[in-house]
Amino acid sequence: MSVTIFHNPECGTSRNTLEMIRQSGVEPLVIDYRVTPPTAEYLAFLIDQAGLTVRAAIRQKDTPYLDLGLDNTALSDADLLAAMVAHPILINRPFVVTARGVRLCRPSELVLDILLNQDIGPFTKEDGEVVIDADGRRVAAAAH
After folding, report:
1. DSSP string, 49-108
2. Distance CA 103, CA 110 (A)
3. The CA-based dihedral angle spanning residues 90, 11, 131, 47, taken in that order and rounded to the nearest 10 degrees
4. Where are the domains of the chain?
């Protein structure tokens, strides 16, 4: 099964997602979207397939979101997509594409819903939060 992750290696959520994919037995295509951003058209496709709005897919924290005036509600989706491609750090991450669908994996365990092999064994995030316990049961995520 082919899996693609639009990854930021500096992001813990992205690293956790990548590790869950690998633990499922798949070595994904890893795209550092900050270096190789998707086109505006492909980004719009990812956002649509993930069931999101363009505005919901923009990262605001630690980005030039406010400096670029992206909080202006009069901006069109095309305007927002153009800003995300020009400043890839604005793309929320990680987007994961599999044969079972596309997800913005925030929280990271959302990737389990689209992996062919969801039985990845025990998994604990970098911060110590248990996602799958020693008995292979998915632990309900705390409210984020």
Report:
1. HTT--TGGGB--TTSSTTTTTTT-TT--HHHHHHHHHHSGGGB-S-EEEETTEEEE-SSG
2. 7
3. 20
4. 4-132
Is 105 one of the catalytic residues? no
pLDDT at residue 142 is higher than 50: no
**Which range in 1-10, 79-88, 122-131 is most confidently predicted, on average pLDDT?**
79-88
* Site of tokens 């630690």: 62
CATH of domain 4-132: 3.40.30.10
Per annotation, catalytic residue among 4, 11, 22, 124: 11
pLDDT, tens digit, 9 for 90 and up, residues 105-124 = 999 999 999 999 988 999 99
